[in-house]
Design brief:
The complex is a heterodimer. In chain A, α11 crosses α12. Chain A is globular. The longest helix of chain A is centred in the C-terminal third of the chain and has 17 residues. Chain A is mostly helical. In chain A, 51% of the residues lie in helices and 3% in strands. In chain B, a hairpin with a 5-residue loop joins β5 and β6. Chain B is 32% helix and 16% strand. By secondary structure, chain B is an alpha/beta fold. In chain B, strands 3, 7, 8, 10, 11, 12, 13 and 16 form an 8-stranded mixed β-sheet that branches. The chains are: A mainly alpha, B alpha/beta. Chains A and B meet through α11, α12, α20, α22 and β5 of A and β1, α5, α7 and α8 of B. β5 of chain A pairs parallel with β1 of chain B, so a sheet runs across the interface.
Chain lengths: 486, 418
């Protein structure tokens, strides 16, 4: 294992969850273009990560009875975290996380509406493992780098979304505005591009986009599910006029249609939103923050270039993300460690670097809650507050305490792995700098770490002192501000 | 490519190293800044509270005709009299505790609060209530700006946010308001025994004292770490608190209980932020007989009443002001999902031992052409600028200069809630 291919490490931190020791070896001399291909063309690697759950070489899971990731939300969380640790397709899981934040849907409201079991299926069912449509997460994985317009159509008819934003009861007589508003404010072009009258018209567009429970099973039956249902009887058929163009010829009105054909209203509307230049720019700004930097505002030239790429490619995301990862904006060394890690990214990277042998991924679940990011439970439809907002005092304590939990769990592994460096504090610290990937330390905090290693220890370290200092050092580094950036 | 540790450290960077104040010294600051003086507890109802279901105009025929499925029957409201325009009003039937507080003269209700051209967006609306500037929903919060006026050094526990994320209102330039959702988990753990744990804590403290000028993002995170480490010991003192009343078992009540504990322990906090969500009732809002909104009111009212009773028993009521708001009111007419969509004017409440109870402002008339409405009669038009309420709290409770903090004079129309 050796660090040194910095550009590739940057790529794997940002477009994945950070390189493991094996990844560092594998990509030691790889050029950026090869690694971008590895990430973007992820379909070349098998999607076999779930088959490794429960095997000894991988991070563990904690079961309460049978492991039921399709029907029990805590197990769904474990499965997703497991995937992020061990996937061969890191960018696919990373984009799934991006879309989960973009189309933020929370389990608690779903469970309160349809029951815990169907709610978990709505979010996490892997196609074919039980009856019913695939869960929202699987949709995000399927469309991770797919076509945004198509994804938006699928999201609009996704059962979890139809419950979350109340489309299931959107009816002709008095349309209900929740989804119609948020698809414009949050999912596409954003505030400033529409009026309240547009919200009312959008609500009418989606009348009749409801749900049904075809078999009417009890909501504790694993076979129970809900599916999207276009309820023509509840569709409001009159024309809908907007303040922005709906069709390529500039027409702003969706024509009156028969109820039977009325679902086309929504398709037309979604297509207009997805292909609107301001949607392209808003996605570009969001991708800047996700991939390039949170320390600088989006470069207008980047926004225009990415928006153009998106529109030229008919809203396909793969060429857009490939363009970003190969762009000078992304590859500029000033952008290394320029993004505040999300709690999930922090946890997964720490596990991949510190180690997982003997760890259950379940140990991350409650800490993630305390750090402010429980998967499938974003605070609201706008998703999580990113950047600095992750770093309240309570949240930094939770990060430091997870570092401690992980270090305690891995103390013997760490001690054995650093036995070669037990001669001096300098050697031990250097060995941890090879293992972990904090942003560069300034001299002062680096000397704090050396002082820590010297305090109360006789060098070379005894076995027990080595175990203690290795764990303490891992905790301090992973819990330091320098480690919170990717 | 062999890499040495030299590549991991950087030399010669301009940086500040802050010294750490000892806990005893911090307690002194806390006392100097008023550990025994007044507290403000801000309660935010997240999602846009349906004010017309909280304070019900139960004699307005349009209230019933526009809300056939969700109106609260006149016979079930908790009557609180009439406002200055003669509108008869009643609290939601699940707000029994608040009616008691009202009858004790310690609940002020400010009707139709808001601002011109109210944002119907949750996120922009919440930000506007946070910055107290409808034209600038980003930047520092109104309470943050107040905290920034306090003399330095400011006690890191001067404010206490019970949520994980820092709300816009508490964003300050010079103060990192601690986020302490649960005092039980607000502690630092170690993989090692006590002696080594102390070494680790000393190292973490030293590392977080480093504020590199060229990496303000690192300095920011170090500031949070420092604020956490310097408040841990005092926060842990609230864990042993035994309240004088039983609190309901929900997150909102737990947060209020923690606030009461912190006040009783006298740890120096002056501003608390508490919040409860679920108010975005687009569907199945229910009516007095039950349903989502009744549950929300039960959580809100019962928890607040327990808090009020606890503070009264602890002799802290006169030093406490509770201020409640939400980002907007909701549409007057119900939608086809038996819920309500985003609207405009809302309701604020203030509770405290020295609050001047009563009904402030006038209720809207819900007939669609009435000038108390807007948006073609769809929404309630604001009457009292929310910043006037803020001004009253800043001037009259916190002893601050509201004109400087709010960037304008809103005193003229401020309701005399304290």
């Amino acid at each position: 294992m050796a660090r040194g291919n910095w550009q590739v490490e940057h790529l794997l931190r940002r477009a994945g969850f950070g390189p493991t020791a094996d990844d560092l070896d594998r990509f030691e001399d790889a050029p950026v273009s090869i690694v971008v291909d590895f990430l973007v063309e992820y379909q070349r690697q098998p999607d076999d990560v779930d088959s490794k759950i429960g095997q000894s070489a991988y991070v563990g899971i904690t079961t309460r009875g049978e492991f039921s990731p399709n029907t029990r939300i805590d197990d769904a969380r474990q499965r997703w975290l497991f995937r992020m640790v061990h996937t061969q397709r890191p960018l696919q899981e990373k984009m799934a996380l991006f879309w989960h934040n973009h189309f933020a849907t929370a389990y608690s409201k779903l469970a309160g509406t349809v029951g815990a079991l169907p709610a978990t299926k709505m979010l996490a069912l892997k196609a074919g493992e039980l009856p019913g449509p695939q869960g929202q997460l699987e949709l995000f994985r399927q469309y991770a780098l797919g076509n945004f317009r198509s994804l938006l159509v699928e999201v609009a008819r996704d059962p979890a979304m139809v419950v979350w934003l109340d489309g299931r009861t959107n009816a002709r007589a008095r349309p209900q505005e929740n989804f119609g508003r948020e698809i414009m404010e949050l999912f596409t072009f954003g505030l400033g591009n529409y009026t309240e009258q547009d919200v009312y018209a959008a609500a009418r567009v989606f009348t009749g986009w409801n749900l049904r429970n075809p078999q009417r099973l009890r909501n504790t039956d694993p076979n129970a599910y809900w599916e999207f249902f276009y309820n023509a009887n509840q569709h409001e058929t009159s024309a809908k006029t907007f303040t922005f163009p709906i069709y390529r010829d500039g027409t702003r009105t969706i024509p009156a249609r028969s109820a039977a054909d009325g679902m086309q209203d929504g398709i037309d509307f979604i297509t207009a939103l997805a292909t609107h230049p301001e949607t392209a720019r808003r996605l570009a700004r969001k991708l800047w923050g996700f991939f390039v930097s949170e320390l600088e505002a989006p470069d207008p030239a980047f926004v225009e270039a990415v928006a153009t790429e998106y529109l030229m490619n008919n809203t396909e995301m793969k060429p857009v993300v490939r363009f970003i990862l190969r762009s000078p904006w992304f590859l500029d060394p000033a952008r290394w460690h320029a993004r505040y890690s999300w709690p999930v990214e922090f946890v997964i990277r720490a596990i991949r670097e510190v180690g997982w042998n003997g760890l259950s991924i379940d140990a991350a679940r409650t800490p993630l809650l305390n750090m402010g990011q429980s998967l499938f439970e974003p605070p609201d439809v706008a998703g999580w507050s990113l950047g600095r907002d992750w770093f309240s005092t309570g949240a930094v304590l939770a990060r430091m305490n997870f570092a401690s939990t992980l270090a305690a769990n891995q103390r013997f592994n760490l001690g054995r792995a650093s036995a070669f460096a037990r001669q001096s504090p300098d050697d031990l610290l250097a060995s941890f700098m090879e293992r972990l990937s904090p942003a560069p330390y300034d001299t002062a905090p680096y000397h704090e770490l050396l002082t820590y290693l010297q305090s109360g220890a006789a060098w070379p370290l005894s076995d027990s002192q080595l175990t203690a200092k290795a764990a303490g050092l891992a905790k301090l580094i992973v819990g330091s501000s320098e480690y919170q950036f990717i | 490519m062999k890499v040495t540790r030299r590549e991991f450290i950087r030399d010669g960077v301009a940086a500040f190293t802050v010294s750490f104040a000892a806990p005893a010294f911090l307690a002194d600051i806390a006392r100097a800044q008023g550990a025994l003086s007044r507290s403000l507890v801000v309660v935010y109802l997240g999602g846009g509270n349906d004010a017309l279901s909280t304070v019900v105009p139960y004699q307005d025929a349009f209230y019933y005709s526009r809300r056939p499925a969700i109106a609260i029957p006149a016979g079930q409201v908790l009557q609180i009299g009439s406002d200055s325009s003669g509108k008869a009003l009643g609290l939601h039937p699940r707000l029994g505790g608040l009616r008691t507080i009202f009858n004790e003269g310690r609940l002020a209700i400010v009707q139709r609060t808001g601002y011109a051209n109210s944002s119907r967006s949750h996120f922009q609306g919440t930000d506007i209530w946070g910055t107290a500037d409808p034209n600038a929903p980003t930047g520092l919060g109104w309470l943050g700006r107040y905290l920034d006026t306090l003399p330095s050094p400011v006690d890191p526990l001067i404010a206490w946010n019970t949520m994980r994320e820092t709300p816009r209102a508490l964003v300050a330039r010079n103060v990192a308001v601690p986020a302490i959702p649960n005092a039980q988990t607000y502690s630092l753990s170690s993989p090692n025994g006590a002696a080594e744990a102390l070494n680790e804590r000393n190292a973490a403290t030293g590392m977080s004292a480093h504020l590199p000028a060229d990496r303000p993002h690192l300095s920011f995170v170090n500031g949070s770490i420092r604020a956490a480490l310097s408040t841990l010991d005092r926060v842990s003192s609230v864990n042993t608190y035994a309240p004088s009343v039983a609190y309901p078992n929900n997150g909102f009540a737990l947060a209020l209980r923690t606030v009461a504990a912190s006040m009783v322990r006298g740890i120096g906090t002056r501003v608390y932020w508490v919040q409860t969500g679920g108010y975005d009732t687009h569907s199945n809002q229910g009516n007095a007989g039950g349903g989502a909104y009744a549950n929300l009111m039960g959580t809100f009212g019962d928890s607040l009443f327990a808090f009020y009773s606890d503070l009264r028993n602890q002799g802290l009521l006169n030093d406490t002001l509770i201020l409640q708001f939400s980002e907007f009111g909701r549409r007057i007419s119900e939608n086809g999902s038996a819920g309500t969509d985003h609207g405009a004017g809302g309701v604020m409440m203030a509770i405290g031992g020295t609050a001047r109870g009563g009904i402030f402002g006038t209720a809207a008339s819900l007939d669609p052409g009435n000038p108390t409405l807007e948006n073609s009669g769809a929404d309630v038009r604001y009457e009292t600028d929310f910043r006037a309420v803020y001004a009253r709290v800043l001037d009259g409770w916190l002893g601050a200069d509201s004109v400087a903090i709010l960037g304008g004079n809103f005193r003229a129309n401020a309701p005399a809630i304290i």
